[in-house]
Write a structure and sequence with these properties.
The complex is a heterotrimer of chains A (164), B (458) and C (634).
Chain A: H1 2-21, H2 25-45, H3 49-73, H4 86-107, H5 126-134, H6 138-159
Helix pairs in contact in A: 1-2, 2-3
Chain B: H1 2-17, H2 23-43, E1 49-51, E2 56-58, H3 60-83, H4 91-109, H5 114-132, H6 139-170, H7 175-184, H8 190-206, H9 215-222, H10 225-249, H11 259-278, H12 283-303, H13 309-336, H14 350-353, H15 355-369, H16 375-389, H17 393-417, H18 431-449, H19 452-455
Helix pairs in contact in B: 1-2, 1-4, 2-3, 2-4, 3-4, 3-10, 3-13, 3-18, 4-5, 4-10, 5-6, 5-10, 6-8, 6-9, 9-10, 9-12, 10-12, 10-13, 11-12, 11-17, 12-13, 12-16, 12-17, 13-15, 13-16, 13-18, 15-17, 15-18, 16-17, 16-18
Chain C: H1 6-21, H2 28-55, E1 61-71, E2 74-82, H3 84-107, H4 114-133, H5 137-155, H6 162-193, H7 198-204, H8 213-229, H9 238-241, H10 247-256, H11 261-268, H12 270-273, H13 277-299, H14 304-324, H15 328-355, H16 373-387, H17 393-408, H18 410-435, H19 443-446, H20 454-469, H21 484-489, H22 506-533, H23 547-553, H24 558-593, H25 601-604, H26 611-632
Antiparallel strand pairs in C: 1-2
Helix pairs in contact in C: 1-2, 1-4, 2-3, 2-4, 3-4, 3-10, 3-15, 3-20, 4-5, 5-6, 5-10, 6-8, 8-11, 8-13, 10-15, 13-14, 13-18, 14-15, 14-17, 14-18, 15-16, 15-17, 15-20, 16-18, 16-20, 17-18, 18-22
Classes of the chains: A mainly alpha (164), B mainly alpha (458), C mainly alpha (634).
Chain lengths: 164, 458, 634
C-alpha cells in the first residue's frame, strides 16, 4: 500500500510540474489528465470508489476534453513561449521556494501528533456518502444548486452573442 | 432561513419573468421579494434557529447583518431601473444574479459549519464574476471580471487549504467542535496555526485589506457602477460579518495566531488606503481606496473582541453601506450624464445642476469623513471606543490621524460640487432613484442623531 | 420652565429648516424676519430662565431629555445643564445674535443667496446653543463640530471666489487640528472618570490631587481644542483669513460667540483645570504671547476687517491670560463686554463697507464722519470701550484682569498693559484714518456715501448702549459696587483654593488703574498726533519697508512658516506617494520587466494589462511573511 501511495504521489507531482514546464498547451493538458488520474488513484487507496469515479468522469472526462476542444478550435497550439527575463524567473523561483519552505516548516512534526479522528474505511462508499450527503450535509448540498444555477446563467449570458 | 429561501426563489422567478420583457415587472417583483425577505428576517428576531444538523445558526447577530444587507440591496434595486434605462439585454439575468449573490451573503453571516461558510462565500462570489463583466462590450468591464475571478480563485484556494489544515487537526468542520478543541488542547501544532493564518489571508482578500487589496481598485473601477455599489456594500459587509464570527467563535482562544496579522492588515489599510486616495482623479477609484481605508477601521472591531465590538461593527456596516450607496448613486448619474467621465471635475457645479444630488453627495461624504450628526461620526466613535476598551489606544491614534487625512479628499469632492461652472444644464433623474438616495441620506442623519437605535440591537 | 428649555434649541433649528427648505419660495425679507424672530424667541426664553435662575439658591439644573447613547460602560443622556454659566452664554449668543440677524437683513438684502445665508446663520445659533447648553462633553462636542461646520460654510459663503474657499478650508483644517486634541481629551476623560457627564466628572475630580499627570494631560488636550477654536498661537492664522465671510458673520462667529467657545470650555472644566497648575501656566504663556503678537500685527494692517480680526485675537489672548491666572469670572466678564463692543465694531465696519460699495482698505477711506453720523458715534463708543476708558464697559473688564495679573506677576501685568496700549493705539489709528481727514478714495463714490438704513443702525445703537453700560454689570468693590456678575457666576466655577476674590488694598488698585489709564490716554494722544495732526498715511504695498516693519506687516511670517514646514512637505509626500509608488514602482516593474511570476501561466498574458503578476507577487510575499511570522515568532 505504502509503495502504491508513493508511486501515485510521485506521478502526480511530476505530471503537475510538467503541466507548467511543457511548452505546448496540448502537452500540458495531457499531463494534467495524468495528474488527475493519479489523484483518482489516491481516492481508491482511501476506499472512496465513488469519489474516484466521479473525479475521473468530471475532471478527466468532461472538463479536460472541453479544454482540449477550446485549444484546438481556437488554434492556440503554438509553442513559441515568449522569453522571460532572468530577473522574472529568479523572483518567481524565490517567492515560490519561500512559500514551499514555510509550508514545509509548518508541517514539520505533524507525524508525532495525535490523530483527531479515527479513519472510517467505509465512509467513501456510495451508500454511506449518499446518506451523509442527504442528511447531515443537506443544506450545503441544496445551496450549491444556487451556485451552479448562477454559474450556468453566467455561462449563457457571457457566451451568448449579443448584437452591439 | 425562510428569508434566504425567499431570496433564492425570487431570483429563479426573475429568470422566468425575463420572457415578459417588461422592466417594471422585474423590478417590482424583485423589490417585493426583498421586502418579504427583510420582513421574514426581522420577524425572526430573538427566535434562535439552528437548521439541519447545525449547518446554519440564525441568531440575532446573523439577523441584524442580514437585514442590513437586504436593506442595502433594496436601495440598490431602486437605483437599477434608471441605471439600466435603454439597456434591454440581460437585465432579468443581472437581477437574478444579484439575488443569488445576496442569498450567498446571507448564508455567510449565519454559518455554523465551515462547509457552509465555503459554499456561502462561493455562492456570493460566482455571480459577481459574471456581474462584473456584464458590460460585455467594455474592455474595462471584461478586465475587471477577469481580475476579480483570478484573485477570488486564489483566495478560494487559500481558504480551502486553510479549512483542510484545520479539519486535519480538529477532525470536524463544526464551529462548536473547533472551539472545543482549543479549550482541551494546550499546545497547538504549528500546522494548525498555518491553517488559521490561511483563513485570515483569504478573508483579507475578500474584504480588500492591504496588502491583499490590489484587485479592489481595478475591479471597482472597471465593473458597472451598480455592481460596484453592491460589491462595496453587501459583499464587504458579509465578509466582515463572517470574518468576525469565524474568529470570535472558532479561534477566540488562540489570539496569538491571528492578532498581529489583523493589526498589520488594519494599520496598512488605513495608511495605504487614505494616502492613495488623496490624489486620485477618478471618483470611483477614490471611493475604492476610501473603501480600503474603511476596511482598516472595521478591522478594529475584530482586533478588540469584547461585548461591544459586534454592535460597533454592525453600526459601522450600516453607516458605511448607506453612505456608499448614496455616493455611488450620485456618481452613476454624473457619469451617465452627457457622457461625462467620473473624474472630480465632472462633479463641478453639481449644486447648480441638481441641488438634491449635491446635498445627498455632501452628506454621504461627510458621513464617510466622520463629521458629527451623520452616522459616520458615531460609526468611527464606537469603533474607536471598542478598540480603546480592548486596550489599543495607539492604533486608535493612527485611526484618528487617518480619518483626518480622509477629510481632505472627501472635502475636495464637496468643494468641487459647489464650485462654479460654465455649463448649467440641469441633470434629471427618476423619482424612484431620488427616493432611494433620499432614504439613504435621511437614515444617515437619523442614525447619526439616534445611534442607540442600532447600537443596542446586539 | 427648565424642563422645556429644549425649546431654546428648537426655535433656531426650526428657522434653519424653514428657511432652508423654502429657500426657493421665500423672499429675502421674509426669511430674514423668520430667522430673526426665531432667535428673538430663544433670547426671550433664555432671559426668562435667567431671572428664574437668579431666584433659586441651588442654581444648577440638569435637564435630561432622553437616553441618547447607551452601550456597555458608556451611557450618555441627551440633556442640558442650565446654570449661571450656560445662561450667561445663552443670553450673549441669542441677544447679540438677534441684533446681528437684524443687521444682516439690511446688509445682505442685495445678495441672491440671502435665504441660504439666514438658514446657515440659524444653524450656527443652534449649534452654538447646543455647545453651551449640553450637560456632557460628547453633546458639547457635537455642538463644537457644528459651529465649526457653520463657520466653514459661512466663511466660504461667497464660494465663487477661490481665495474665499481656501480661507474656509484653512479655518476648517486648523479647527480640526484642535478637535483632535479635544477628542483625545474626551477619550482620556472617559477612561479616567468612566463618564462624560459634567456633574459626574466634576464631582469625581475632587478625588484627585493637584498636579496629577492624567489631569494635566486631559486639561492640556482640552486646551489644544480651545487653541484651535479660539484662534491662539500657533493655530490663530485662520481667523484673519476668515474675514472673507460676510461682515455680520465675522461679527457673530469670529468675534462675539464661536471664538469664545474655547474660553467657555476652560471655564466649564474649571474644576479640572485648577488641579493642573502646569496647564494653567501654559495657558498663561500662550495667552500673553498671542495677545502681544496679534496686537503688534494689528498696528500695521490696512484692511479694516483685518485690524479688527487681529484685535479679536489679541483680546482673546487677554481673556486667556485671565484664565491662566485662575480669574475665570473676570475672563467671562471680558467675554461678555467684548461681545458687545467687538460685535459693534464689526457691524460698524460692515456699515462702512456697505456704504463704500465693498471698499475695505482704510488707505482709501477718510473723513466720512459727516456723512455717516450714527455709525461714527457708535464706532467711537466702541473704540473707547475697547481702549478701556472709564466708564465704558471695557474699562471694568480689563481692569479686573489687570488687577489679577498684578497680583500674581508684574511681568504678566506689564505685558498686558503694553498690549492694552497697543490696542488703544491701533483702534484710534483705525478711527482717525476712517473718519477724520479727507476722503482718499475714488471721488465718484464720495457723493454716494450715505448713512445705512434703520434696520442696520438700530442694532448699532443698541449695541452701543450695551458697550457703554455693560461694565456696570460688575462694578468692582473699590468703586463701591458689589460684583453682581461674579457673584452670579460663582456657583458654576471652581477656583483655586488660595484664589483671592478681593484685593485687600483698594488704594493700590485705584492707583494702578489710574496709572494704566494715563498711559492709555498718552497713547491715544500719540495716535492723534500722528494720524490727525501730521496726517501720516500708511504706506502702499509697493513701497519698501524696513525689516521690522516688513516682518510685522507680513504677520511674523506665520503663514509662510506653516506653508514651508507643514503644507509643502505634506503635499510633497502625497505627490511622491502617487507618482512614486503608483507610477514608478508598479508601472516600471510591470512595463519594464513584464510579468514577474509565471504563476498565472499562459492565460495571464492574454490580458492587456500585466499588473496581475505583480499583484500576485506582492500578495504571495505578504502571505509568506505572515505565515513565517506566526510560526517562528513567539
Amino acid at each position: 500500500m505504502a509503495f502504491l501511495f508513493y508511486l501515485l504521489s510521485g506521478i502526480a507531482l511530476l505530471s503537475a510540474l510538467m503541466v507548467v514546464l511543457s511548452k505546448s498547451p496540448i502537452n500540458s493538458v495531457i499531463y494534467l489528465i495524468v495528474c488527475f488520474l493519479s489523484i483518482a488513484g489516491h481516492y481508491i487507496l482511501l476506499n472512496a470508489q465513488f469519489l474516484a469515479v466521479v473525479h475521473i468522469i468530471v475532471y478527466t472526462g468532461a472538463i479536460m476534453v472541453v479544454f482540449l476542444f477550446v485549444i484546438m478550435l481556437l488554434n492556440l497550439n503554438k509553442t513559441n513561449e515568449p522569453h522571460k527575463s532572468v530577473l522574472t524567473k529568479f523572483m518567481a523561483v524565490i517567492s515560490g521556494g519561500m512559500l514551499f519552505l514555510v509550508l514545509i516548516a509548518a508541517a514539520k512534526g505533524v507525524n508525532e501528533m495525535i490523530v483527531a479522528k479515527e479513519f472510517d474505511a467505509n465512509i467513501g462508499l456510495v451508500a454511506n456518502l449518499g446518506k451523509v450527503l442527504y442528511t447531515d450535509y443537506m443544506i450545503p448540498f441544496e445551496a450549491s444548486s444556487v451556485l451552479f444555477l448562477s454559474a450556468m446563467i453566467g455561462a449563457v449570458m457571457l457566451g451568448k452573442k449579443d448584437k452591439k | 432561513m425562510f428569508s434566504i429561501i425567499t431570496i433564492a426563489i425570487t431570483g429563479v422567478l426573475l429568470l422566468y419573468l425575463g420572457f415578459l420583457k417588461n422592466r417594471w415587472i422585474y423590478i417590482s417583483v424583485a423589490i417585493t421579494g426583498l421586502i418579504t425577505a427583510l420582513a421574514l428576517s426581522v420577524f425572526s428576531w430573538n427566535s434562535l434557529e439552528t437548521s439541519f444538523s447545525n449547518m446554519l445558526i440564525i441568531d440575532n447577530y446573523a439577523i441584524a447583518f442580514n437585514s442590513v444587507m437586504i436593506f442595502a440591496t433594496i436601495l440598490i434595486f431602486l437605483l437599477a431601473p434608471h441605471y439600466f434605462k435603454g439597456i434591454e439585454k440581460n437585465v432579468p439575468e443581472i437581477y437574478a444574479l444579484l439575488m443569488f449573490s445576496l442569498a450567498g451573503a446571507c448564508m455567510v453571516t449565519s454559518f455554523d459549519n465551515l462547509t457552509m461558510l465555503f459554499i456561502g462565500i462561493e455562492t456570493m462570489s460566482i455571480p459577481l464574476y459574471i456581474l462584473a463583466g456584464s458590460k460585455k462590450f467594455s474592455i474595462r468591464s471584461n478586465e475587471a471580471s477577469f481580475k476579480y475571478f483570478i484573485f477570488s480563485s486564489l483566495a478560494t484556494a487559500i481558504f480551502l487549504l486553510g479549512i483542510t489544515l484545520v479539519y486535519g487537526m480538529v477532525g470536524s468542520f463544526h464551529v462548536g467542535d473547533i472551539s472545543n478543541y482549543f479549550t482541551i488542547t494546550k499546545e497547538i501544532p504549528s500546522i494548525l496555526k498555518v491553517g488559521i493564518v490561511l483563513l485570515v489571508i483569504s478573508f483579507g482578500f475578500k474584504i480588500a485589506a492591504v496588502p491583499f487589496h490590489f484587485w479592489a481598485p481595478d475591479v471597482y473601477e472597471g465593473s458597472p457602477t451598480l455592481i460596484t455599489a453592491f460589491m462595496a456594500t453587501v459583499v464587504k459587509i458579509a465578509g466582515f460579518a463572517a470574518f468576525y464570527k469565524l474568529l470570535s467563535t472558532c479561534f477566540i482562544l488562540v489570539p496569538d495566531s491571528w492578532h498581529h496579522l489583523i493589526l498589520g492588515l488594519s494599520v496598512l489599510s488605513l495608511i495605504i488606503g487614505n494616502l492613495a486616495a488623496i490624489k486620485q482623479k477618478d471618483v470611483k477609484r477614490m471611493l475604492a481606496y476610501s473603501s480600503i481605508s474603511h476596511t482598516g477601521f472595521m478591522l478594529f472591531a475584530i482586533l478588540s473582541f469584547n461585548s461591544f465590538s459586534a454592535s460597533s461593527l454592525l453600526y459601522y456596516s450600516f453607516a458605511y453601506a448607506l453612505s456608499t450607496i448614496a455616493a455611488f448613486g450620485v456618481l452613476m448619474v454624473v457619469k451617465n450624464h452627457m457622457s461625462a467621465d467620473g473624474s472630480v471635475q465632472a462633479f463641478e457645479g453639481l449644486a447648480k445642476k441638481n441641488p438634491i444630488l449635491a446635498i445627498v453627495m455632501t452628506i454621504s461624504m461627510l458621513s464617510m469623513a466622520g463629521i458629527p450628526i451623520t452616522a459616520g461620526f458615531f460609526a468611527k466613535y464606537y469603533i474607536f471606543v471598542s478598540a480603546i476598551q480592548g486596550g489599543w489606544l495607539w492604533i486608535v491614534i493612527i485611526g484618528i490621524l487617518a480619518a483626518l487625512v480622509g477629510v481632505a479628499y472627501y472635502l475636495k469632492l464637496i468643494i468641487a460640487m459647489f464650485a462654479k461652472t460654465s455649463e448649467t444644464e440641469k441633470i434629471v433623474t427618476s423619482p424612484l432613484y431620488i427616493t432611494s438616495l433620499l432614504v439613504a441620506t435621511v437614515l444617515i442623519l437619523i442614525a447619526g442623531v439616534l445611534p442607540n437605535l442600532i447600537i443596542s440591537l446586539i | 420652565m427648565f424642563q422645556n428649555s429644549w425649546l431654546i434649541l428648537l426655535f433656531p433649528l426650526l428657522g434653519f429648516v424653514i428657511t432652508g427648505i423654502f429657500s426657493k419660495k421665500l423672499t429675502g425679507k421674509t426669511s430674514g424676519i423668520i430667522a430673526s424672530l426665531m432667535v428673538l424667541a430663544s433670547f426671550i426664553y433664555s432671559a426668562t430662565l435667567f431671572f428664574q435662575l437668579k431666584q433659586i439658591t441651588n442654581s444648577a439644573i440638569s435637564v435630561d431629555l432622553f437616553n441618547w447613547i447607551n452601550s456597555g460602560k458608556l451611557s450618555i443622556s441627551f440633556g442640558f445643564l442650565i446654570d449661571p454659566l450656560s445662561v450667561t452664554m445663552m443670553m450673549i449668543i441669542t441677544g447679540v445674535g438677534f441684533l446681528i440677524h437684524l443687521f444682516s437683513m439690511g446688509y445682505m438684502h442685495h445678495d441672491e443667496r440671502v435665504n441660504t445665508y439666514f438658514s446657515q446663520l440659524n444653524l450656527f445659533v443652534f449649534s452654538m446653543l447646543l455647545l453651551v447648553m449640553s450637560s456632557n462633553y460628547l453633546l458639547m462636542f457635537v455642538g463644537w463640530e457644528g459651529v465649526g461646520l457653520c463657520s466653514y460654510l459661512l466663511i466660504g459663503f461667497w464660494y465663487k471666489k477661490n481665495a474665499f474657499n481656501n480661507a474656509a478650508r484653512k479655518a476648517f483644517i486648523m479647527n480640526r487640528i484642535g478637535d483632535l486634541g479635544f477628542i483625545i481629551g474626551l477619550i482620556a476623560i472617559f477612561t479616567t472618570f468612566h463618564s462624560l457627564d459634567f456633574n459626574t466628572v466634576f464631582s469625581q475630580s475632587s478625588h484627585f490631587i493637584s498636579g496629577e499627570a492624567i489631569i494635566t494631560f486631559i486639561t492640556l488636550m482640552l486646551f489644544v481644542g480651545a487653541i484651535g477654536k479660539s484662534a491662539k498661537i500657533p493655530l490663530f492664522t485662520w481667523l484673519p483669513d476668515a474675514m472673507a465671510g460676510p461682515t455680520p458673520v465675522s461679527a457673530l462667529i469670529h468675534a462675539a460667540t464661536m471664538v469664545t467657545a474655547g474660553i467657555y470650555l476652560v471655564v466649564r472644566s474649571s474644576s479640572l483645570f485648577v488641579l493642573a497648575p502646569i496647564t494653567m501656566d501654559v495657558i498663561l504663556v500662550v495667552g500673553v504671547t498671542t495677545a502681544l503678537v496679534a496686537a503688534i500685527i494689528a498696528v500695521l494692517q490696512n484692511d479694516i476687517k483685518k485690524v479688527l480680526a487681529y484685535s479679536t485675537v489679541s483680546q482673546l489672548g487677554i481673556m486667556f491670560i485671565a484664565l491662566g491666572l485662575g480669574a475665570f469670572s473676570s475672563s467671562l466678564f471680558h467675554v461678555t463686554t467684548h461681545a458687545f463692543f467687538k460685535a459693534l465694531l464689526f457691524l460698524g465696519a460692515g456699515s462702512i463697507i456697505h456704504s463704500l460699495q465693498g471698499q475695505q482698505d482704510i488707505r482709501l477711506m477718510g473723513g466720512i464722519r459727516k456723512s455717516m453720523p450714527i455709525t461714527f458715534i457708535t464706532f467711537f463708543i466702541a473704540v473707547l470701550a475697547i481702549s478701556g476708558i472709564p466708564p465704558f464697559s471695557g474699562f471694568f473688564s480689563k481692569d479686573e484682569i489687570l488687577a489679577a495679573a498684578f497680583h500674581s506677576s508684574p511681568i504678566v501685568w506689564g505685558l498686558t498693559v503694553i498690549t492694552s496700549m497697543l490696542t488703544s493705539f491701533y483702534m484710534f489709528r483705525l478711527l482717525f484714518l476712517v473718519f477724520y481727514g479727507s476722503y482718499r478714495g475714488d471721488s465718484k463714490t464720495f457723493g454716494k456715501i450715505h448713512e445705512s438704513p434703520k434696520i442696520m443702525t438700530i442694532p448699532l445703537i443698541i449695541l452701543a448702549i450695551l458697550a457703554f453700560a455693560g461694565g456696570f454689570l460688575n462694578i468692582p468693590v473699590m468703586f463701591g459696587g458689589t460684583e453682581n456678575f461674579a457673584t452670579f457666576l460663582k456657583p458654576s466655577i471652581t477656583f483655586f483654593n488660595d484664589y483671592n476674590f478681593e484685593i485687600p488694598n483698594h488704594l493700590n488698585e485705584i492707583l494702578l488703574a489710574l496709572g494704566v489709564l494715563l498711559l492709555i490716554i498718552v497713547t491715544i494722544f500719540v495716535s492723534w498726533y500722528i494720524f490727525v495732526k501730521k496726517s501720516v498715511l500708511p504706506v502702499s504695498d509697493s513701497t519698501n519697508r524696513g525689516i521690522i516693519s516688513k516682518f510685522i506687516y507680513r504677520k511674523f511670517y506665520f503663514d509662510e512658516i506653516y506653508n514651508f514646514f507643514i503644507i509643502k512637505p505634506y503635499q510633497w509626500f502625497a505627490e511622491k506617494f502617487t507618482s512614486f509608488i503608483e507610477t514608478n514602482i508598479i508601472d516600471s516593474i510591470i512595463n519594464g520587466i513584464g510579468s514577474i511570476v509565471v504563476f498565472v501561466g499562459n492565460k495571464a498574458r492574454l490580458i492587456q494589462n500585466g499588473n496581475i503578476g505583480f499583484y500576485m507577487f506582492v500578495m504571495i510575499i505578504a502571505m509568506i511573511s505572515m505565515i513565517a511570522g506566526i510560526i517562528w515568532l513567539k
